[in-house]
Amino acid sequence: MPDVTPSTKKQTAFRIDPEILEGLRQVKERDGVPVSEQVRRALTAWLADRGVIKADRKRAVTRKRS
């Protein structure tokens, strides 16, 4: 995900099919990911796939040392 501070995010509204919204709500219940974050992730991936934005590299998972 691009590093975007909350102050730079813009609020917007759009129409969405009821079936898609229900799916987003189910994922929220199951995984705890807010609907807005799911939409942000999907749009970021879609734009990166089309070469409009640069996708961030995922960080390697590291183990905690005891």
Question: How would you portray this structure in words?
Answer:
The chain is an all-alpha fold. 44% of the residues lie in helices and 0% in strands. The chain contains 2 helices and no strands. The longest helix is centred in the middle third of the chain and has 15 residues, at 35-49. It starts with 17 loop residues before the first helix and ends in a 17-residue tail after the last helix. The mean pLDDT is 86.
Q: What is the gist of this entry?
A:
With 66 residues, the protein is mainly α. It has helices spanning 18-31, 35-49.
Alpha-beta content class: mainly alpha
H/E element order = HH
- What is the alpha-carbon Rg in Å? 15 Å
- The span between the termini is 30 Å
Characterize the biggest β-sheet: none
Fraction of residues in helix: 40-55%
Mean pLDDT: 86
Shape: extended
The number of E-state strands comes to 0
Total of helices: 2
- Estimate what percentage of residues fall within beta strands: under 5%
Ranges with pLDDT <50 over ≥5 residues?
none
Keywords:
66 residues, mainly alpha, 44% helix, extended
Secondary structure blueprint with pairings:
Elements: H1 18-31, H2 35-49
